[in-house]
Fold these 3 entries.
Entry 1:
Amino acid sequence: MEFKHISVLLNETIDSLKINPAGLYMDATVGAGGHSYEIAKRLTTGKLVCIDQDEDALKTAKANLKEFGENVIFVKGNFREMKKLMMPLALFGFDGILMDIGVSSYQLDNPERGFTFKENTRLDMRMDKSNELTAEKILNDYEEKDLYKIFKEYGEERFSGRIAQNIVKAREKKRITTTYELNKIIENSVLDKQDMKVKSIMRIYQALRIEVNDELNALKFAIEDAMFLLKKGGRLAVISFHSLEDRIVKNAFKYLESDCICDIKQAICTCDKVKTGNIITKKPIMATDEEIKNNNRAHSAKLRVIEKV
């Protein structure tokens, strides 16, 4: 299957990075390379590092960016380890780093990857296929209370308890291995109309995907690493697609911009917190109606940008 993906907030993201033709940049979640292409074509003597944990994505990005030759460096790995990944390359002092968070259109549309609920396929959901944890293992091996926790916290699903309970009952008879088996359990656990059942299915799949790939923790570590790798005046741009991700980015940026985190009742600062960033986007940049019309995935996208001081 061809790796297809439409980059969201493309112009807004490139503009926010303020590309220096001789600068050093990173696309920490390169995907098919849509954002990277626009960065690379603005470089002369500059360099662009492209990271992705998905081998299919890297293969596609290499093909799409081959015209830029040695100006682009490809690295397989998780963006949560970008500092570690840069050590062998001795690359530090980046002018800009981009992180486009979440699952790609290719991963969603390819039944073999197990992200979609629309096809009957194995429950996988790994972005890095070398990882051992899959959605199938979670559904069959996690205790009921742990299933409830991830459905509630990562999916914000109001029927989390009933769904977790029915998953445990179902797996006592037969191991849950396919998407349609999971869909049926969710549908039988939800009392609402069919359109509401579909939304519950989507929320459970989101929760499983986040757990399989440890996405929220990865995002926290990635922001910390990115700020370390940036030079003063360098910018970090993060595109998120749901409230849990955006909340992490918003709170992390707020912390980085703060000079003090002491209780406001304290007369003297004792925290020794030092401001390390200026938030460029006081409110997140969102897609225009025209972009959403052409790419429905953009409707929930939010871009936040911070500059290192």
Entry 2:
Amino acid sequence: MKKLLNPWVDVPNYNCIGCSPHHPFGFHLQFYEDGDTIICHWKPTQNYQGWINTVHGGVQALLLDEICGWTVSRMMQTVGVTTRMETKYLKPALTTDPLFTLRARITGQKRNIVTIHATLTNSEGVLCTEATCDYFTFTKEKSMRDMHFRECRAEGE
């Protein structure tokens, strides 16, 4: 598994709630590549609670959307925006769980729309939440010019 380097870490005003290491209330997510899959581990706290001891559904959706975006960045070497997201909540994701694992991979592409499937499993490997996201991907030129994107590399590349 290879750790991905954050391509925006030095961009002025970069303050993504999902992946910025500088966001004061952010998740500070870090991503890894394992073949055609992007992986992320996240430790919940009571700060992300909806119902008692349960991770808020919006937080779960944010996590899944974030890993989908990183999947596009790494696998397509461009950026995009979510145009559709279907989220299925299958089992409670508990804030008392010590660690969640997110996984995502590209499942399809039609022109500039990329489809990604993502999952959130608890520390016992139980699937809690899954999502299918469609991302409108920008040209590499637009990504570089408007989104400050150069490339999404892994450590050692």
Entry 3:
Amino acid sequence: MQIGISTASLFMRLYNEDAIALISEWGVKTAEVFLTSFSEYEPKFSQTLLKKKGNLSMNSVHVLNTQFEPQLFSEHPRVRADAYLWLDKVLSSANILGAKNYTFHALARLKSTFKENLKKSGEKIAEIFDYCKKKGVRLCLENVEWALYNRPGLFKELKKYCPDLGAVLDIKQAVISGYPYGEYLDDMGENLAYVHASDFDENGKKCLPGKGCFDFEELFKRLQGAGFDGAVLIENYNDDYRELKELKDSYDYLLEKAEKIF
């Protein structure tokens, strides 16, 4: 298992190229790059990141999903085709960076007109998964309170249509959704690919790992018991801490906890 950092934790503090350089400078072994604009989806931008990453291994790419991911499910041929054009750029970027995983939110539950249809969504996800696989990248669905996978049990249903679909456990989203993270772990099972880690204090305020009450030793024990060998990546928001050094301290904290278990 590896401990790493997502550049999402530095969003609105540093541009991605500077975030990658800093994370690499800290000696972190693995990272996720959170691409956040159409210009950053262009493969030429990843060439810039490649020059900055040093020995840093890229676990995954993540995008600002509402920009094109929901449109991959569209019934309108032109809308869907345009969405696949952007997906293709992101997958090319992943290949340039050596990232083997793509963190996926899929559909957004943002409109009152949204109607859940797991069979239809599962079939579409299978198509998207196959497209990503041909490009050498594994599609990994993340639990997100406002997106398709918003509660435990859905992953097993979607897996019926896409058996090799990867899963991403997001701790903060599990808390926000109101379900114990263990229920998501059970739902994801052997398909769990990696984890987005964050913490909450005694007042329920989100914070960096090590600054709150979350029992990471228990999480790591559960992951070890399940034979997990992926990455645990710190993914917080820019207002969850004050100084950049706090993010490095959080990484060191998780690394120490993991070394006790793994």
